[in-house]
């Protein structure tokens, strides 16, 4: 939640004379996370043309450029049971999304190929061949849990976009660009598959282990209870025999 207690924003009028654009101004925004376990700071800056707004405050009227200062990327911390190379590609793709969207898309493509090889156990010389094999397994109902046709279609689209950075067009005068928003779309697909594949599998495994552990515990209690009952019966039979042999009874 953002409020006056954890949010500060200030616009600085840059008195530098006639710049290339009118009335240069810099806006700084700071937000503190109110989660006591986090308490981290988000810091961003925006450069643009400034003017006095309707409330009488100096505002950014036309944005020229923005910078995310803290944290240095919008990546989401991923669990350790996701292989380190996949996490590293994901974190780097997030880190360079704005500075080099094309390179970010290429890293996203590599990360998804690594996921196919690790999670789906498919390895071919080319990504397109791995995608075809994954489609075949889905059609046969032999693909890992969480892998759907829609998932494969999305990965195939990422392959096309990632190829822009990985391979040059035959006509080198043809320049295909990737913007930060498109790179972010690929990053969000990675985050989705991390959840649908790795996190879901881990949770499923943990739940099954918990059920097995509970069943084993209950079985141990049943075994112990039966042993106790059997011991009580033996004791009772021994007492009965002893009583029958005692002439005073």
Strand content: 15-25%
Report strand order across the widest sheet.
Answer: 1-2-3-4
- List the total number of helices: 5
Structural class: alpha+beta
Q: Order of helices and strands, N to C?
A: EEEEHHHHH
Specify the overall morphology.
elongated
The radius of gyration computed from the alpha-carbon positions, rounded to a whole number of angstroms, is 32 Å
Instruction: Summarize model confidence as the mean pLDDT.
Output: 83
The overall number of domains is 2
Distance between the termini: 83 Å
What composes the largest sheet?
Answer: 4 strands, antiparallel
Number of strands: 4
Overall helicity? 40-55%
Describe what you observe in this structure.
The protein has 249 residues and is of the alpha+beta class. It has two domains: 7-70, no CATH class; 84-203. 52% of the residues lie in helices and 16% in strands. It contains five helices and four strands, in the order E-E-E-E-H-H-H-H-H. It has helices at residues 84-95, 101-119, 127-140, 149-166, 180-245, and strands spanning 7-13, 24-32, 41-52, 58-70. A four-stranded antiparallel beta sheet has the order 1-2-3-4, with no helix packed on it. A hairpin with a 5-residue loop joins strand 3 (41-52) and strand 4 (58-70). Helix 2 (101-119) packs across helix 4, helix 2 (101-119) packs parallel to helix 5 (180-245) and helix 3 (127-140) packs antiparallel against helix 4 (149-166). The radius of gyration is 32 Å and the shape is elongated. The chain starts with 6 loop residues before the first strand and ends with a helix. The model is unreliable at 164-175 (pLDDT under 50).
